[in-house]
Amino acid sequence: MIRVENLTKYYGDVCAIKEVDFTVHDGEILGFLGPNGAGKTTTLRIITTYLAPTSGAVYIDDLDIAEHSAELRARIGYLPELNPLYSEMPAYDLLVFAASARAITGRRFKEALGGVMETCGVREVLHRPVGELSKGYRQRVGLAMAMIHDPEILIMDEPSAGLDPNQIAEIRALIKELGKEKTVIISSHILQEVQAMADRMVILNKGQVVADGTTTELMAGFQGKAQLTLEVKNATEDSVQGLAVRFPEIRVQDQKLQDGVSRLELEYPTGQDLREQIFGYAVESSWVVLEMSRRQARLEDLFRSLTVEEGGALA
Amino acid sequence: MRDQLQISARHVAIIFRKEVGSFFNSPVAYITLVVFLLISGWFFSSSFFLINESDLRGLFNIIPTIYLFFIPAITMGLIAREKSTGTMELLVTLPLEDWEVVTGKYLAALSLIGVGLLYTFVHFITLTFVGTNIDLGAIFTGYLGLLLVGGVYAAAGIFCSAVTGNQITAFILGFLIVFVFFMMDKVLFFIPGFMAGTVQYISVDYHLSNISRGVIDSRNLIYFITVIAVFLILTVRVLEIRKWR
């Protein structure tokens, strides 16, 4: 179990993360989500002991990483952001290096190598310098390096960045597979990715945890807005304004299309279904309803509402 | 305790192997070695027959000067390159201690200097063919002195490589520090009397000249070992600072 307690990190005067608090249970895949610059990489670097926090602590199985640094590093596999590798070294040499640094040699290395060749699919590029490999293969070599010692904890900073859709699908499947027996933390700024892989997600914004839970848990607490799109004929100015008067909770946006057809975009808080009333009003005002479609608040809306500045241009 | 030492020694060896591998994987090592050998060879052979004495003085006098460029060129990339390519993150999140990493890298640089010195043995072989009454002891201590001086310069160089993320800056900085050590004994004339003793004691030449005369004095050895240790400890400290920035 990884326990992150009250982590705060300042770079000079700039606060990168502030009082970050969360827990990762054994055998869980945690998605670490947030827009660029939210502090994901900083947090992961602190967990892997690359950086020291300004205040706060990280415990792995109740051992403080500041005190048991080397011991705990031995149990972690880490794929840093942008996957830095020694580009002049062949993949095989890199794996030998990573393995020997973790005291895996001889027969145990052969076994470990066989294992990662299988899971990461690096067999065919083993003897080529990693600088010459495609991005997808480089990523696999990086993963193989992080996994050569079969770590209980795997930490990956944006593992799918820069990959093509097929490679992303492959890496997602791989991570999901790994998550069956390992504790995994993956960071990403892409919601769908985290949703597809993670059991639970922690959303970070401007260095602070703004949400923590499973998709269902997060959605349950979210008061978003439902959107209803209506295409009607014969809608007069007055009758459209009348709709807003009748239902004060609805925000109406009106857009004239051709041939007397209007498109109305209605927005109202989720938790109630106003479709029936609205249809009733349309009949009253003798609109001809051509189309009515509802879009429920989704996780994206939650993500946006949590991470976009209030009143900002993007809102 | 002994187990811990064995583990550390193994870790140092792992880093050492990786660094030596990357030296000879890149052209830098070959170029600097060839330049080193060309310059030292020329200075040796151009004066050897003129002086007409059976020693390697010409060689031993010029090598510290070549070191000025040779050693910063070897050490500039040791840490600065890891920082600029981001592999530093990979390296220090392995279960290795920072001092093991620094020691492994330092020994790799030192061994490259050793290889350079080893090649100058051809001049020694020349000497054994044409010379008479060769003072083998002086030649041995001469080489030992050069290796120790190289050790001091390499320690300064790896320190410079740690303070910056840019290899060129590391080279220039390394050159400057090495140059100060190199010059101290030579500018003694301009230094006020009360400081002269101290400056002379710090200067590399002062200790080197004792050793290359064939006298191995523990005071000189302690000097070299202390300066090397100070620079290496500073390097480890600088690496640790990255965590707290």
Strands of chain A, total number: 14
Q: For the residues shown, what is the average pLDDT of chain B?
A: 89
- Major beta sheet, strand line-up of chain A: 6-7-8-3-9-10
Please give the share of residues in helix of chain B.
over 70%
Mean pLDDT metric of chain A: 86
Cα(first) to Cα(last) distance of chain A is 37 Å
H/E element sequence of chain B: HHHHHHHHHHHH
Oligomer class: heterodimer
Major sheet characteristics of chain B: none
- Helix and strand content put the structural class of chain B at mainly alpha
Task: Name the overall outline of chain B.
Answer: globular
Helix count of chain B, per DSSP?
A: 12
**Count of domain modules of chain A:** 2
Q: Rough shape of chain A?
A: elongated
Key structural traits:
heterodimer; A: 315 residues; alpha/beta; Rossmann fold; Alpha-Beta Plaits; 2 domains; six-stranded mixed sheet; elongated; disordered C terminus; B: 245 residues; mainly alpha
How does this structure look, described?
The complex is a heterodimer of chains A (315) and B (245). Chain A is of the alpha/beta class and 315 residues long. Chain A folds into two domains: 2-219, P-loop containing nucleotide triphosphate hydrolases (Rossmann fold, 3-Layer(aba) Sandwich); 225-296, ACT domain (Alpha-Beta Plaits, 2-Layer Sandwich). Chain A has eleven helices and 14 strands. Chain A has helices at residues 40-47, 69-73, 91-101, 106-120, 135-147, 165-178, 191-197, 215-220, 237-246, 275-284, 299-307; strands at 2-11, 14-24, 29-33, 55-60, 63-64, 76-79, 153-157, 183-188, 200-205, 208-213, 225-233, 251-256, 261-269, 288-295. Chain A has a six-stranded mixed β-sheet with strand order 6-7-8-3-9-10, with helices on both faces. In chain A, a hairpin with a 2-residue loop joins β9 and β10. The longest helix of chain A is centred in the middle third of the chain and has 15 residues, at 106-120. The radius of gyration of chain A is 25 Å and the shape is elongated. Residues 310-315 of chain A have low confidence and may be disordered. The model of chain B has no long low-confidence stretch (mean pLDDT 89). Chain B has helices at residues 2-25, 27-51, 57-75, 77-85, 87-92, 98-119, 121-130, 136-163, 167-184, 193-202, 204-212, 218-244. With 245 residues, chain B is mainly alpha-helical. Chain B has twelve helices and no strands. Chain B has one domain (2-244).
